[in-house]
Specification:
Chain lengths: ~180, ~120
């Protein structure tokens, strides 16, 4: 993966496969402390202790078509090679939480890349799932909560092109507000 | 500044279009492989380009969706195009430039872009 935002796109597929209907993505850029954090929380079916131990092993996967699963090992590697950490917590029937941290200035830290494209694509491809995306930059932050969008839209689906355009503009505009 | 209130206007416009859309059952399907292998090989901009171009050109009755790993990871990014009533066509080693031709020649005009298909790909 060339961008951390691609890892996020990939890891969220696990949440979707686990039947989550609420997925939170946090991007925290704490430049003052030279830390980058990316967290993903879902309310999917969760994992047993044994599964949690196995998921970072590339030769473990829940998929049946092939015996290798690289999503989580790649995400873990990206965090650890920058001098950061990877933590996964899960409770059966409650959901899964993944916390990753990175040394922001590390030469071995992958760029975040186009996280907005990841968020917008996840919403467009999964219009029945709710997403909460939070982007913090030092002390400023903003959120996008699709449940609030739904309140305004009634039965109009989130994958309506005009809604996706609105989401893209909302993300771009808020990024420019918090990163000044 | 974007406000949630703007969504009200979008809603009213969309509600009018929604009724028409629901009648279209037998459309063209575009499936983009978005498992770890596809994403790592560059599937995200391919999917964005398909959705963007189809909406920009106002092509009706095409549904772009994602699919998982179909087991040919070495050929990713992989895109499958299924025109109603026709065999599935598998395009491999996709690039954003290839998307333009596939939309114009295959999706709009019904002519498969042979040179981009898996049968004509040498790794």
């Amino acid at each position: 993966m060339r961008e951390l935002s691609l890892n996020v796109l990939d890891i969220v597929q696990n949440s979707i496969t686990a039947n989550a209907n609420l997925i939170e993505i946090e991007l925290i850029e704490d430049i003052n402390n030279d830390i980058l954090k990316i967290n993903i929380f879902d309310n999917g079916k969760g994992m047993t202790e044994e599964q949690i131990k196995s998921v970072t092993d590339p030769f473990y996967t829940t998929r049946t078509t092939r015996k290798i699963g690289l999503g989580i090992p790649l995400f873990k590697m990206a965090a650890e090679m920058s001098g950061g950490t990877f933590i996964i917590e899960s409770t059966v029937g409650v959901g899964t939480k993944i916390y990753t941290s990175y040394i922001h200035s590390s030469i071995d830290r992958m760029p975040v890349g186009n996280i907005n494209e990841t968020v917008s694509m996840l919403i467009r491809m999964n219009p029945d799932i709710d997403f909460i995306y939070t982007h913090a930059f030092n002390e400023k932050s903003y959120s996008l909560d699709t449940r609030e969008l739904r309140e305004q839209l009634d039965e109009v689906p989130l994958d309506t092109p005009d809604v996706i355009d609105w989401i893209n503009e909302y993300l771009t505009e808020n990024d420019s507000m918090i990163t000044v | 500044m974007k406000s949630l209130a703007e969504l009200k206007a979008i809603k009213e416009k969309a509600q009018a279009e929604l009724a028409a859309r629901e009648n279209n059952v037998d459309g063209t399907r575009v499936l983009v492989g978005m498992a770890t292998c596809g994403i790592a090989a560059g599937a995200r901009p391919i999917l964005t380009k398909f959705v963007g171009e189809i909406s920009r050109r106002g092509i009706a009755n095409v549904k772009v969706t994602q699919t998982g790993c179909i087991g040919i990871c070495q050929y990713e990014p992989v895109v499958e195009v299924i025109l109603p009533g026709q065999e599935k066509v598998t395009y491999v080693k996709m690039t954003e430039d290839k998307v333009d031709r596939i939309i114009t020649e295959h999706i709009v005009n019904g002519k498969v872009v042979d040179e981009y298909t898996i049968g004509n790909c040498k790794l």
